[in-house]
Amino acid sequence: MAKKALIFGAGLAGTCLAHRLISSGIEVKIVDQGSNYSSAVAAGMVNPMVFRRMNKSWRLDEFLPEAQAFYQEIEQQLQTKFYHPIVIRRFFSSKEECDNWQKKAAQPDYANYLEKLTPADLENTEASNLFGSGRVKGAFWVDAAQWVASHLAYFKKLDLLIQSEFAAHLWDPQALVYAGETYDFVVFCMGFRQKEEETFSYLPLQQTKGQTLLVESKILNQSESLNRKCFVLPYGERQFRVGATYEWNNSTLHCTPEARELLLQNLASLGSFEPVVIAQAAGVRPTVLDRRPLMGKHPKHDGVFVFNGLGTKGYMMAPTLARELVAHMLENKPLHSETNISRFTDRTP
Ligand SMILES: Cc1cc2nc3c(=O)[nH]c(=O)nc-3n(C[C@H](O)[C@H](O)[C@H](O)COP(=O)(O)OP(=O)(O)OC[C@H]3O[C@@H](n4cnc5c(N)ncnc54)[C@H](O)[C@@H]3O)c2cc1C
Question: Do domains 4-41+145-204+290-347 and 206-288 have the same CATH topology?
Fold first, then answer.
């Protein structure tokens, strides 16, 4: 008989994990209370670079190809479009940043990610350009709202989705029983709300609010994602997502005029694009101070796992991390040491 897993949370973490478990022959049920606060609000950008330090993103060479293949495979499976390759054009903030790009672009391990600077890049006029611009290769974005909505519909159709709030009085972590059903594995993927639930409340999960604007502009470049101080993601039909704010230790979910003002200012520093704001969105990222995910087995309860802390780069990391967590759950393969919650065992109550 197939083993059974219960997942709490149908955001990015829970959905990627469900796919990986189902592919491994596990029977899956997912509990979700129905309104997502991060995965569906996200811009879904996958940027190989961390511009602040002009470095490749952590474990990029592993995460990026797997994510590209995974999202296209799931598109086929769900018969939906959410994977969109895009060129990111970074406008440099200083001569030093431009020099840094040039140095990095000449290194073989950046060849897949940074285009060498051409005269056209240096003189690009899509935005105000004092120090030149450079193009990132291998980037894409996932239509995040589409990802979450189509998964809720898909799992509902397969009768895997239990649309309800987690109920602590129905949960017995010793017996691995929830609502009268016994499972072989139970995985908590509740995003920023994980702190409200006792089982993994000892983990140092932080709540980092983010807001974005949807704007219309007749001037902005529709074929590249411009970047400096903010990102501008073309959505088609002259609409663009501008983001994002970082509001530390803030788990409120309302949009604020301050964030709107800041995002418009950041956009204005790129150029005069005559934006008309169509909508504003707010969500809360599940982040961790050491910027590494939270994955692994509960220190006291066998069969109880967590997959969280995806932070600002969730869409790039989740497909690989979900596969690694499943290998850990089913075959006891060790997790990457930087992701394993064993690094916080001294906090266990
Ligand atoms: C404004 C903004 C922009 C972002 N942009 C990007 C980006 O461009 N690229 C990128 O990679 N990442 C981005 N992110 C981050 C990304 O959204 C996260 O890394 C990722 O989506 C987190 O997924 P998750 O499944 O862990 O959490 P969530 O998406 O929060 O999912 C948790 C799920 O658990 C459910 N749940 C929670 N509590 C309960 C409960 N008590 N009972 C039942 N169900 C429950 C919720 O309904 C939800 O569906 C952004 C985030 C924000 C807010």
Answer: no
Q: Where are the domains of the chain?
A: 4-41+145-204+290-347, 87-138, 206-288
Residue 122 CA, ligand 1 centroid: distance in Å:
37
Report pLDDT digits (tens) over 261-278: 999 999 999 999 999 999
CA distance 258 to 250: 14
- Asked whether the predicted pLDDT for residue 348 surpasses 90, the reply is no
For 4-41+145-204+290-347, which CATH class? alpha beta
- Whether domain 206-288 has CATH 3.40.30.10: the reply is no
Cα–ligand 1 centroid distance for 212 (angstroms): 14
pTM > 0.90: yes
How much is the pLDDT for 340? 98
Q: Which of 190, 199, 232, 253 gets mutated to test ligand 1 (max ligand atoms within 8 A of its CB)?
A: 190
- Decide the pairing of beta strands 49-50 and 181-182: unpaired
Write a three-state SS string for 134-181: EEECCCEEECHHHHHHHHHHHHHHCCCEEECCCCHHHEECCCCEECCE
Question: Could you tell me if the CB of 198 is within 6 A of ligand 1?
Answer: no
Interval 282-325: pLDDT, tens: 999 999 999 999 999 999 999 999 999 999 999 999 999 999 99
